[in-house]
Design goal:
26% helix; globular
Length: 197
């Protein structure tokens, strides 16, 4: 059985929109102005190398599909070769290799995916998808790289939910120029080991 891991670059006020640029957002690329240091880079590389699949919303998928196939190296090779699942009602012929389009009910499709796909199924960006997964208690772990900046506008990770979602912090560290890496799991999870940090 797989685990859904939501990993995000997030501002102090919760914005996750266009952290790496490529979108029509006034602060697109905002993370590039703050160094996450060698330890932050290693965290993202280790996370990617331990991922078994990507699960993305259409906008994030299209940004990744435009950027990664032309790149090489350990990080790019892993992204380019692993299975990718994109939630979309409009995307019909994805060109990025190993991509499957999930067109049905998101909650049903992702629940089925968790049963069929082992390991970490990682959601990058994709705030609308992430909010749906959060609201339906499908997220097994949150990995938030919180940058010390307030953007004041933009798509946020957390929206309204049908109920409160208690979490517990399992790991935390500060890297680079004050970037906090916070790892949370649902508080109801039994038998999880606390992370080191």
């Amino acid at each position: 059985m797989g685990r859904i891991v939501v990993t995000e670059f997030v501002s102090l006020d919760g914005v996750v929109e266009a952290p790496g640029g490529g979108e029509d957002f006034k602060y697109a690329g905002w993370t590039f102005q703050i160094k996450r240091g060698d330890e932050g880079e290693k965290f993202k590389l280790d996370e990617t190398l331990s991922s078994e699949a990507l699960l993305l919303g259409r906008v994030t998928y299209e940004g990744f599909a435009a950027a990664w196939p032309s790149r090489d190296g350990e990080f790019a090779d892993k992204l380019n070769n692993m299975p990718k699942y994109v939630v979309s009602s409009t995307l019909e012929n994805p060109e990025w290799n190993n991509t499957t389009v999930l067109t049905g009910d998101v909650v049903e499709e992702v629940s089925k995916l968790k049963q069929e796909q082992g390991g970490d199924i990682v959601v990058h960006g994709s705030p609308q998808l992430a909010q749906t997964l959060i609201d339906h208690d499908l997220v097994d772990e949150y990995r938030l790289m919180v940058f010390p900046v307030v953007l004041g506008s933009g798509k946020r990770l957390f929206g309204e939910t049908s109920d409160k979602k208690p979490l517990r912090l399992v790991d935390s560290k500060v890297v680079g120029d004050g970037v906090a890496i916070l790892v949370y799991r649902p508080a109801a999870s039994e038998g999880d080991e606390a992370g080191s940090g």
